[in-house]
Design a protein that fits this description.
The chain is α+β, with helices and mostly antiparallel strands. The protein has three domains: 99 residues, 2-Layer Sandwich (Phosphorylase Kinase, domain 1), CATH 3.30.200; 170 residues, Orthogonal Bundle (Transferase(Phosphotransferase), domain 1), CATH 1.10.510; 132 residues, 2-Layer Sandwich (TATA-Binding Protein). It is built from 16 helices and 17 strands. The strands form four sheets. A seven-stranded antiparallel beta sheet has the order 5-6-4-3-2-1-11. Strands 12, 13, 14, 15, 16 and 17 form a six-stranded mixed beta sheet that branches. A two-stranded antiparallel ribbon has the order 7-10. The longest helix is centred in the first third of the chain and has 20 residues. It is globular and about 60 Å long. The two termini are 41 Å apart.
């Protein structure tokens, strides 16, 4: 079968002008997929929400708030929202595609203080901008901080943010939310809190974590954790510079009335070193018509669109196949443009990893199943995607793994393995065990094989 004829059997899912690719994130109510703007070639990320689930769990106002928030914020250190679309069953939020991964993945040891300072400067600048627009994030943590291809920080996930009009008559917010280890003491109380000072506390925890590699407040007992946070029971390690220690102590002040403010942080000697405020266009979009339209029945077509031949005949899907991955998607997964790193099976893995194989897709599925079952995982399969759930609860609940097989070429596949729920260290242990069972499936280049024999 020649290449032209082969391409007509591939089906591409399209939403409006966007061609959808692989899944890059999965949550309780949404998943995020890589996509390409067919008109411009630009890569984006599309957050896809199920309308039925959103309505069932009464999340309409929260989702609208997230969208409205991101439309207010146009800042170089905040993930940009391009547009919103809706079909009869789905809501599509088109976002800037950030390629550098999560800042969380860099916290595996001590990052150099100058690098930490740069991230913190970008974080404070973005948070200050958000607050100036009446927007409070309320769930700032390393997992919600992404990095672009140049290593610049991008704040994401405004799902728990609050707009200033939600503030009550007493001038305070009253919804307790966020991740416990990063939450300010006043949020844990029932008396209301100021969104700006609460966000700043979270920034202080992030700064501590980036410099130390561990949390300032941590305890397996939730009540004891709350006590530590309320009393600001923490100590800075000896390797922190005096300037960093002083700043963290002023941020992690349990009294929000005496806690350092952002304007004071901008004058701090440790913070100011090498500080360069970003220059950007501060215009922002206040038109929310597309948001309202997205929650109505389809004005945007969601469809399975076949690739057509020169006579414009639509070719129907004949059989279930792994999702196809084009060269642009392949390159976007590699570190820079060096594909040798991409094919390195011994890469340092975090909460997701990938390997390549020359085995048929159905054989790869069978091998993963054979390797995972003895490890205590229940397995669900559909369209060359697998969801593995450990029947035994770990440190952070049951470990859930999502895998998907992509066809790079007719006899060459890429397999993505990522943690969707549970503890990251347990995932790493799982992958080490899984890789032993898949040693005959994983493809290695001749150079890799020679290195392996020499070592």
């Amino acid at each position: 079968m020649n290449r032209a004829k082969m391409s007509t059997t591939k089906l591409k899912r399209k939403v409006g002008k966007y061609e959808l690719g692989r899944t890059i994130g999965v949550g309780t109510f949404a998943k995020v997929r890589f996509a390409r703007n067919c008109e411009t070639g630009e890569h984006v990320a599309i957050k896809i929400l199920d309308k039925e689930k959103v309505l069932k769990h009464k999340l309409v106002e929260q989702i609208k708030r997230e969208i409205a928030t991101m439309k207010l914020i146009k800042h170089p250190n905040v993930v940009r929202l391009h547009e919103v679309m809706g079909s009869r069953t789905k809501i599509f939020i088109v976002l800037e595609y950030v390629t550098g991964g999560e800042l969380f993945d860099k916290i595996d040891g001590r990052i150099k203080e100058d690098e930490v300072r740069r991230y913190f400067q970008q974080l404070i600048n973005a948070v200050d901008f958000c607050h100036s627009r009446g927007v409070y994030h309320r769930d700032l943590k390393p997992e919600n901080l992404l990095l672009d291809s140049y290593g610049n920080l991008k704040i994401s996930d405004f799902g728990l943010s609050a707009l200033s009009h939600q503030v009550k008559d007493d001038g305070l917010l009253h919804t307790s939310c966020g991740t416990p280890n990063y939450v300010a003491p006043e949020v844990l109380n029932d008396g209301g809190y100021d969104g700006a000072t609460a966000d700043l506390w979270s920034c202080g925890v992030i700064l501590f974590v980036l410099l130390s590699g561990y949390l300032p407040f941590d305890d397996s007992n939730l009540m004891r954790l709350y006590e530590k946070i309320s009393n600001a029971e923490f100590s800075c390690p000896s390797w922190f510079s005096p300037g960093a220690t002083r700043l963290i102590q002023r941020i992690l002040d349990p009294n929000p009335m005496t806690r350092i403010t952002i304007s004071e942080i901008l004058k701090d000697q440790w913070f100011k070193k090498g500080y360069k405020p970003p220059v950007f266009d501060e215009k922002y979009d206040t038109n929310l018509d597309d948001v309202d339209a997205a929650f109505e029945d389809s004005e945007v077509s969601e469809r399975w669109a076949s690739v057509t031949d020169t006579d414009h005949h639509v070719v129907e899907e004949k059989e279930e196949q792994p999702a196809a991955m084009n060269a642009f998607e392949l390159i976007s997964l590699s570190k820079g443009l060096n594909l040798n790193n991409f094919f390195d099976v011994e890469q340092e893995y975090k909460r997701e990893t990938r390997f390549t194989s020359k085995c048929p897709a159905n054989e790869i599925v069978s091998k993963i199943e054979e390797a995972a079952k003895p490890l205590g995982f229940d397995i669900q399969k559909k369209n060359y995607k697998m969801r593995l759930e450990n029947s035994t609860a770990g440190r952070k609940g049951n470990l859930n793994i999502a895998t998907e097989i992509f066809q790079v070429a007719p006899s060459f596949h890429m397999v993505e393995v990522k943690k969707s729920k549970g503890d990251t260290l347990e995932f790493q242990k799982f992958y080490r065990s899984l890789s032993i069972g898949l040693k005959d499936v994983v493809w290695k280049s001749e150079e890799d094989m020679q290195d392996h024999l020499l070592n």
